Structure formats: C-alpha cells, structure tokens
Amino acid sequence: MQKKFYQDLKIGVLGGGQLGRMLIQEAINLNINFQVLDSDVDAPCKNIVSKFVQGSLTDYDTVFNFGKDLDLLTIEIENVNSDALLALESQGVKVFPQPHIIKLIQDKRVQKQFYIDNNIPTSEFVLINHKTEIANHKAMLPAFLKLGKAGYDGKGVLAIKTEADFAKAFEAPSLLERKVDFEKEISVIVARNSKGEVSVFPVIEMVFDPIYNLVDYLFAPANISETIANEAIEIAKKVINKLEMVGLLAVEMFITKSGKVLVNEIAPRPHNSGHHTIEANFTSQYGQHLRAILDLPLGNTAAHTSAAMVNLLGEEGYNGIAKYEGLEDIIKIEGVYPHLYGKKFTKPSRKMGHITIVDKNIESLRKKVETIKSKIKVVA
Q1: What DSSP element (H or E) covers 36?
Q2: Structural domain for 337, as ranges
Q3: N- or C-end of the chain: fewer Cβ atoms within 10 A?
C-alpha cells in the first residue's frame, strides 16, 4: 500500500481554542485540512476547519469516536481523555504527543516525580493525599498548593502563606510546593520529531499577572546571561528526550536569586509563551509543532528580531459580547501585530487575544508594551 503524503492525511485536533486556531492557520499554508473536537459550539476553530464536532474532550466515547477514522491526532489542551487516546493509539492511529505522556503531564504529582526520577532540577515539594496532611508540613511555608489533576491557566493553585490558609486546601490529591525565591520566570519551547531530532527556541522571559496567575506579557529574548540561557536550553532538551516525546513542549522554569534554574511545569503543545514566534522567528511554534508531528525536518528557530507579547484578558466587571477598546490606537504603532481569538463572549480574565510587538531596540520595545497595556481593553 502506498504511503500517504502528509497533505493527504486525515488529521484531528482535540480542542478548538486559540492554540488550535493558530495551529490551523499555519496548516492552511501547507494545504493541510484539520478536523476539530470541542465542547463549545462557538469555538474559535469552528469556521476554519473542514469538519467541526461539538462534544466533550474528557468523555471516552466522544474522543474515541472522533479519532477512530483519523490518521493522526494531536491536542491543544491537556484536559482530554487520555484513556481514549491510548485505545486509539493501540488501533493504529498516530497520537502526538503520545497518550502516556499526556497522562503523565495531566497529573502534576506524577509530573513532579518524573523530574526527581530523572535528575531534572525542580522546586521542593511534598505530596498531599488529604487536606489534613498539610498541617504536618508547616516548615514548607510559604508555599503553593497545586491540584494534582484538572488545574490549568492559574486555576487549581492556592497560595498557602500561613497556617490560617490550611482551611482553604483542596480536598483532592495535590502537592505542596515550597515558594521559590525567584529572580525571573522563563520558558523554553522545544520540539522533537519521530526521528529523535530536537530543536529549541530561544529562552523568553515571562511576567505574570499577580491576581490571575496568568502571563501578562513576555520579552524575547530573556534578559539573562548566556550561561543561564544555555543551562535552561539543556534542561528543556533533557526533559523532551527523557520523555521521548514527539511534538512541541513548553518548559516553564524559575531562575532563583542564587542563580539556579528549576523546572516549574511543562505543557505538551503550543504555548502562550511562544505566540511571538509567529512574527519574530524564522519558524513559528505552530509551524514547528506541525513539522514535529508530521515527521518533517524541524525548522530554524532563530529570532530575526527582539519581540514582546501582551496577553489580552477580559476586563473585570464585563460579561457579554466582546468589544476591543483602543484597537485602532495600537494598530498605528509600528511593529504591532494584533491577534484576536474569535471568542464571541468576554468575561473577567478570559484570554481573548494577544498583541505581538517587534522592535530591534529593547528600550523602545518596553515602552511600546506599557503603551499597549494602557490603551487596549476587552470590554462588553
């Protein structure tokens, strides 16, 4: 039987949000058609794919039936039914990233143990099976309590500053992680194809919103020493090689005030910390993900300019049909590229879009970030 050319493959994506949308926009350039499964009838991907199926990403039968006639299946979110993916894989459907890796990453407790087992530097933690156990670990404070499963985008994380916070603890299995005294938060996106070829994007620096625990904005490249950048890159390569993962992996890390690099969390898909690569790098993270899962040669990840990315979150106090105040003002600024995700309704802290800014002058770039943050608002 003749091997299918990659453009003839039937490919599906679990998740129809903004990451899937940008992946599909990249795929259109290669004349690749995608099918999408998402629970939202108005998902951002709905109108740009050959087939859209509304259904639960966590329901076994829904995921299995969606994938059973496909050649290849990938994800844009980890909260999917990994057991259905394992069954599809056993029946010959290619699933990238591999289902057992998705299953590992879905549980932060298992993910953390993976770091320990493979000598990957990470922050100090203890596993908590019941909330009453936290009282046995007062010496860990201040700390963060993270749900083992189902936490994402800053949800499922509690700051435990004093014993008074113990009452707020999750009932479900979780992990208590000592608060890291960090200087910066960084991210490295790394890709690997089936041949074992690995390619790494330059290190970027993230600034998080203190209320929502989401990325507020980022700078690329990170303002760090070459020694620390190389260490972060080697750690990211070690993680993806130890996993033997095929696809794209975002490795979020801390740089401590003493200069250590520690892995915080990983995400096996395109990531918020790589949006800027669409305009700033020779190959975008989306193009690289496609190359990796299709077993094509990996692209050049070098940046041809410095860049920043500002997340557009729904403003507090607004629920309803989204309006973008100040969009015309920021479009006037040189080097500004708006990406609106096609989400009809806004609500507080919902990711509604992002703005990429490219500028070879770092100081000018920083000023543009502040201007954009002050001018554009997502309201209803």
Answers
A1: strand 34-38
A2: 182-379
A3: N
Distance CA 266, CA 39 (A): 24
Do 192 and 334 lie in one domain? The reply is yes
Round to whole Å and give the CA distance between 155 and 213.
8
CB-count burial class (<10 Å; 0-12, 13-18, 19+) for 371: middle
CATH number, domain of 263, equals 3.30.470.20
**Mean of per-residue pLDDT scores for the chain:** 95
**What is the C-alpha to C-alpha distance for residues 218 and 204, in angstroms, rounded to an integer?**
7
Gap between the Cα atoms of 81 and 14, Å rounded: 10
User: How many Å apart are CA 361 and CA 274, to the nearest integer?
Assistant: 20
**Cβ-contact 183, 255 below 8 angstroms:** yes
Output the pLDDT for position 1. Answer: 38
Flag whether pLDDT at 183 surpasses 90. Answer: yes
**CA proximity to 13, closest of 4, 5, 22:** 22
289-326: pLDDT as tens digits: 999 999 999 999 999 999 999 999 999 999 999 999 99
Number of domains in the chain: 3
Distance (Å, whole) CA 115 – CA 357: 34
Both 51 and 193 in one domain: the answer is no
Token pair of 310, please?
């500002």
Q: Shortest CA distance to 60 belongs to which of 84, 90, 77? A: 84
Q: What is the CATH number of the domain that holds 152?
A: 3.30.1490.20
Positive or negative CA dihedral for 346, 347, 350, 354? Answer: positive
Q: Please indicate, yes or no, whether residues 273 and 171 belong to a single structural domain of this protein.
A: no
